[in-house]
């Protein structure tokens, strides 16, 4: 069973420490978070103290030409492999960027937002094996299914 689940995880969108979900306007992401009780020894060497967090990703377009020093600053500001510099000019090679990375840029970048565009969220888990997260999710799904079945049976009896 464990090997079967590992193969499912290997071939789906759950990767080590990262879960990706695509959503469109109006979709709701329902999450149950788990906290681990600890005396902080587990994460004392790390600055991240959250066990799970998300980063919204948006599609962008350059609205001005960035050259020279401005191009290099833009390349450093955005996520890796978003901007390439050719002939001393910034070229957009990946239009999907973490929203937090572009909030400090005042001009020259437009966030493309239409009803058809997907808003992508990258959900990262810290210090938990993705298999453990997946298995906890299965247990919660079974519990919710049982509760729904009980509610249906209760309302049928009334």
TrEMBL record:
Coiled coil: none
GO BP annotation list: DNA-templated transcription
Keywords for this protein: DNA-directed RNA polymerase, Transcription
Tagged with keyword Transcription: yes
Cellular component GO terms held in the UniProt record: nuclear DNA-directed RNA polymerase complex
MF-aspect GO terms: protein dimerization activity
The name this protein goes by in its record: DNA-directed RNA polymerase
Organism: Pseudoloma neurophilia
């Amino acid at each position: 069973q464990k090997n079967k689940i590992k193969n499912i995880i290997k071939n789906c969108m759950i990767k080590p420490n990262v879960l990706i979900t695509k959503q469109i306007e109006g979709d709701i992401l329902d999450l149950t978070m788990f906290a681990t009780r600890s005396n902080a020894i587990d994460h004392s060497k790390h600055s991240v103290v959250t066990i799970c967090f998300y980063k919204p990703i948006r599609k962008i377009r350059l609205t001005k030409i960035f050259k020279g020093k401005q191009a290099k600053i833009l390349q450093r500001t955005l996520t890796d492999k978003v901007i390439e510099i050719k002939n001393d000019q910034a070229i957009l090679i990946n239009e999907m960027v973490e929203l937090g990375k572009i909030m400090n840029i005042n001009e020259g970048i437009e966030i493309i937002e239409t009803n058809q565009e997907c808003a992508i969220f990258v959900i990262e888990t810290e210090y938990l094996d993705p298999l453990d997260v997946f298995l906890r999710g299965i247990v919660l799904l079974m519990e919710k299914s049982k509760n729904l079945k009980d509610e249906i049976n209760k309302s049928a009896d009334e």
